[in-house]
Specification:
The protein is globular and about 65 Å long. The chain is 38% helix and 18% strand. The strands form two sheets. An eight-stranded mixed β-sheet has the order 5-4-3-2-10-11-13-12. Strands 1-6-7-8-9 form a five-stranded mixed β-sheet. The chain is built from ten helices and 13 strands. A hairpin with a 5-residue loop joins strand 12 and strand 13. With 354 residues, it is α/β, with parallel strands linked by helices. About 4% of the residues have low confidence. The protein has two domains: 291 residues, 4-Layer Sandwich (Purple Acid Phosphatase, chain A, domain 2), CATH 3.60.21; 53 residues, no CATH class.
Length: 354
Amino acid sequence: MKLGPVLTSLLEIYDKSPVFKLDKEDRLVIFSDMHMGNGKGNDDFAQNSDLFLHSLKEYYYPLGYKVVLNGDIEELQRFDWHKIYAKWQKIYEQFDRFAAEDRLIKTIGNHDIGLLSQEIKDYPYELHEGIRFNYKDNDIFIFHGHQASKKYNLHNALIGYTLRYLANPLGIKNYSVSHSSRKQFKIEQNAYNFSVKKKVMSVIGHTHRPLFESLPKIQRLKYRIEGLCRKYADLDKKDRKPVKKLINVYRKELKKIYKNSTKKELEQAGIYNNLLHIPCLFNSGCVIGKRGITCLEFYNGDVQLIHWFDKNISEKYMNHNGYDPVQIGDTNYYRMIIKKEKLNYIFTRIHLLA
């Protein structure tokens, strides 16, 4: 298999990654890009911190989930480790609960790679550059994603200096690759190409935008509209109204994306392989989204993209058909399934089409 320098680097990470077993009845959730800071104004994590805490404490822990923290958990390019740890003790207490039962796995991102420094000797969790889960002899390769960028590997130290000594004093929020569609697309393309060549399912973070089956939101909406139109055509007239309403909801979302996107961004929103769609690349999104948290769950032979939100901040999904948000206890917090698919189907397409 002939690979360039970036894909060769990914192959090295893949080969040295520890392998864990994933059975159908196992429960697994993947979070990335928390960017925990000191709790003050330029700490990106602060807004969703209580929502994240409740998701761990009230949902994932009691249901027996194993948690993967896939990079950029601590924002070490802006803040000192001990200040982060002191501020977010309640979060680390939850991590400790999972770790005590061998239910916590942590990978390194470009913003928390400093945890490997010899200066930090009291970090409580084992760190990996990548990990693999084996499901029915199929590999799920999990790594943060910055490794798919040659530029980030070369200039991470300079980026850290800029964030800490220029952005922080000015109160500038965390700048990430998620704000650059060109860099975002290139990283995803490299991760996608590696996954196709290795015939594996890969899960990344880093870009802050969710991907499901190699599709960004714009493509997912188009597929949904197409599927609903087919469903609508086969329904009796009396049953068509809710489906028509849902089609209009998705059309409005799609129109809004087109209105707010540049021509280049729309060109890069397509599938990475022009010949066939291979559903090999997934992205869990981030914990610091303006409208909530996204993550990926694995259970009962399925993978699903999840959105956690506070209805006081975003009521967008509360009154739309097709979304079924579930309230967590007596809080204002809700968990909602955005997309769901069978792992057997995903790996069948990967092995037959890649």
